[in-house]
Design brief:
Blueprint lengths: L15 E3 L6 H5 L5 E3 L5 H7 L1
Parallel strand pairs: 1-2
Amino acid sequence: MTVSNRINPDAGVVTVGVLTGKLTRSELEAHPHHHILDSVADVPALLDKL
């Protein structure tokens, strides 16, 4: 279970999946996320966009 499974999408929280964990892109896409990143190295660029 990913963290996003436990967060209400209307709670005002931005959910991010990162592919450096154990789940594949297709497994992450099966759950609600606002963003799916290839690496934690992509987090700063995402934060700049938010």
